[in-house]
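Box 3.1 A note on notation
Throughout this textbook, protein chains are presented in two layers. The first layer is the amino acid sequence; the second is a token string describing backbone geometry. Keep the layers aligned when reading.
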Amino acid sequence: MQVKVVLYGMLRERLAKETRGRLTVELPEGSSVADLRAHLGIQTPVGCSVNGQMERNPERVLRDGDEVHLFQSIGGGE
């Protein structure tokens, strides 16, 4: 299956500038968000949305054509 991926912030630096942080990834059917992160070599915790909805479950199974946005988590403040 093919999944569209958009990377933000420092994650974007993993790709060539001309990609503008966007790529399409081929994954086996039944792959999860965690599998996608492993495929991309992202080991640190990151924020994620799938098809415009925030996703906190790394075991969320992806489907062909899904669009996944990955970004660094922002913390701090009270």
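Residues 2-72 form a domain with the Ubiquitin-like (UB roll) fold (CATH 3.10.20.30). The longest helix spans residues 33-40.
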